[in-house]
Amino acid sequence: QVQLVESGGGLVQAGGSLRLSCAASGSIFSINTMGWYRQAPGKQRELVAFISSGRRTNYAASVKGRFTISRDNAKNTVYLQMNSLKPEDTAVYYCNRYPPDNAYWGQGTQVTVSS
User: Fold this and answer.
1) What is the DSSP secondary-structure string of 7-34?
2) Rounded to whole angstroms, how far apart are CA atoms 24 and 101?
3) In whole angstroms, what is the distance from residue 98 CA to residue 49 CA?
4) CB burial class (10 A; 0-12, 13-18, 19+) of residue 100?
5) Which letter does DSSP use for residue 43 in this model?
6) Which terminal residue of the chain has fewer beta carbons within 10 Å of its beta carbon, N or C?
7) How confident is the model over 13-40, as pLDDT tens digits?
8) Contact, 48 vs 93, CB < 8 A?
9) Strands 109-114, 10-13: parallel, antiparallel or unpaired by DSSP?
């Protein structure tokens, strides 16, 4: 059974940085486009960024230029480097395939940005 485990969240001041990690078990990782998503309180979950198996990337307009998605296929891990964080980036961050598969949602990791 595939599992995706997110880590690296925390509390940071506006303008700070965090690096999220998503470790995948199972064999899905290397052949799939992987994405980071987030859900803020009272809002729908939204796509933040995705990266293909060939490392083509795409970002939501709200994070473009501040966030960088990357992957290490040897470690079955996808990363999200978040710089210049803003209070509106506060959310629970999840990784999943892109497009997402409901069977793979994990617990997520909380990111809180204070002003």
Assistant:
1) E--EEEETT--EEEEEEE-SS-GGGS-E
2) 14
3) 9
4) middle
5) S
6) N
7) 999 999 999 998 866 666 689 999 999 9
8) yes
9) parallel
